[in-house]
Amino acid sequence: MDFLFTLQVNDEVEVVGVVRLTEPRKPFVPQNNVERNSWHYRDLEAMSSVTGAEPIFIDSDLASTIPGGPIGGQTRVTLRNEHMQYIMAWYGLCTATSYMWYIKFIKKIKL
């Protein structure tokens, strides 16, 4: 989302993607620079005022790429696989709680 451009397409084009909403500026993210056409977060109202377009943002898939125009498939979603960390944390908590329960109720030792 570093730049915007205007492209006139005369043919019918099918665009497949996700419609995105305006997102609030997060802390430590720089302000958008409208004069330099540099965008760090989605501000649809500002983007539409610069381009003269409707305030609609479509995050298109790779198949919706138009030669010489918008390039689809730019959003990359990666999900971290932290299952082993969760397993170790929850089994560790279960083991520690079970041991404390054993000490308190079976051995009758005051904790």
From TrEMBL:
Q: Does the keyword Membrane apply?
A: yes
UniProt subcellular location: Membrane; Mitochondrion inner membrane
**Keywords assigned:** Membrane, Mitochondrion, Mitochondrion inner membrane, Transmembrane, Transmembrane helix
User: Transmembrane ranges?
Assistant: 84-103
Q: Name one Pfam family in it.
A: SURF1
The family annotation for this protein states:
Belongs to the SURF1 family.
What name does this protein carry? SURF1-like protein
Native species of this protein?
Answer: Osmerus mordax (Rainbow smelt)
Q: Which gene encodes it?
A: SURF1
